[in-house]
Amino acid sequence: MRTRISGIRIALIAGVLALIVLVIFTVQNAQAVKLSFLGAQVRLSLAVALLMATAGTARITQVRRVIHRGRPAAPAAPGR
Fold first, then answer.
1. Domain for residue 79, yes or no?
2. Which of 3, 13, 19, 78 is the most exposed place for a label (fewest CB within 10 A)?
3. What would the 3-class secondary structure string for the chain be?
4. Are 46 and 29 in contact (CB under 8 A)?
């Protein structure tokens, strides 16, 4: 039987597993990289740079979907 407590327990287990994977990913990609954008130069770990790129890509995809869904239908041809 599913209860609220069992749902919380499963969510906590999934969160801890995701955190472990994230820590492993960060440790394996700890070398520093230099990023340049519009004249600004920043040194970050490769893991942080990859996570930022992934988050940015996800956000751009989300915005594109919203724009695509919100676009009105094409107007009917004149005279019809």
1. no
2. 78
3. CCCHHHHHHHHHHHHHHHHHHHHHHHHHCCCEEEEEECCEEEEEEHHHHHHHHHHHHHHHHHHHHHHHHHCCCCCCCCCC
4. yes
Domain span holding position 47: 31-71
Residues 38 and 65 in one domain: yes
Question: Does 76 fall in a domain?
Answer: no
17 & 37 share domain: no
pTM higher than 0.85: no
What type of residue is 11?
A
Same domain, 66 and 40: yes
Q: How far apart are CA 63 and CA 52, in angstroms?
A: 17
pLDDT band at 50 (very low <50, low <70, confident <90, very high): confident
Per-residue model confidence (pLDDT) at position 75: 61
Query: Taking the mean position of all CA atoms in its chain, how far away is CA 78?
Result: 43
